[in-house]
C-alpha cells in the first residue's frame, strides 16, 4: 500500500524517471540497433515486446533483468546525476532492476548552508547506505558548496564528469537531472571516452553507442521550454555527436510532454509507474535527510505553509 505522500510524488518523480529509463532500454536493445551502432527512430506501430520494464515479470513483484539492454557478457554502466532523490532516485531503482551497473552522483549542495557538521555527515551516511540497499555500485559525492550556489551545482557536476573521464572510467549512459549546456557537453565527453588506455576492447564494450538523456534540457531556468528549445532538442536527437568509434545519442524527457515518443500519454505511463511501485517496490523518497532530527523526517507541509516552502520537492496536504 502506498502512502498519500508517495502517491502524490509518483507523477512528479516516477513519470519522468520511467520515460528516461525507456530511452536507455530503446537505445541499447539489440532489436533497435541500425547496423549495430545507433538507435533508430521509433514508430508508434513498432513491436515493443521486451521493452517493458517489468512486463512480462519473471514473478509477481520482480523486475525483469532486461538482458536485451546489455552486450553479451557485459552489464552496461550508467551515471545518474542527483540520483539520491526525486526522479533520479526512482530511475536508479528501475535501472538496477534491469541489471545495470549504476553510479549515483550526490551533490553536497543538498546540505543546507546552516546545517551542522553532524547533519552533513549523517546525510552522507544515510544517502550512501540507501543507494547500496537499492543495489547501486557506487556513490559519488561532488565538491559543491553547502546550500548550493548561483549555478545550482552545475559546476560541481561538470567537475565530477571530467574527473571520471580523466580517471579512465567508461560509461554507456548518463541521466541528467540537473540541466545546462555545460553538463550536457561534459557528459558527452565522458560517453565518447574509450577509457584509460583507449583500447579497442573498451570501445567494443560500448558497441559504438552512448546515450545522454536529460530531464531538464539546456536551460534549467525555463520550466516550460520554448519552441526554439524543442526545435534544437529535436535536431540534436536526430544527429548524434561523435566520430566513427563512439557516437552519443540524445533524448530530452520534458516536463511539458503530454505524450512520450512512443505515443503513451500521462495516464498510460502512470499506470506502469504505479505497477512498479506496488509490485516491485520502486517508490519515491518522502523523507528529509538533512533538516530534521532523523533520517525519516517527513517532507510534507500543511497547505497554509506552502508559500513559505523554499526549494526541493514537497507534498502539500490539503486534507487530513
From TrEMBL:
Species lineage = Eukaryota, Fungi, Dikarya, Basidiomycota, Agaricomycotina
Provide the residue span(s) of the region labelled Disordered.
32-70
Species source reads: Gymnopilus junonius
Q: Show the GO cellular component annotation of the record.
A: mitochondrion
Domain of life, per UniProt, equals Eukaryota
Q: Which protein is depicted?
A: Uncharacterized protein
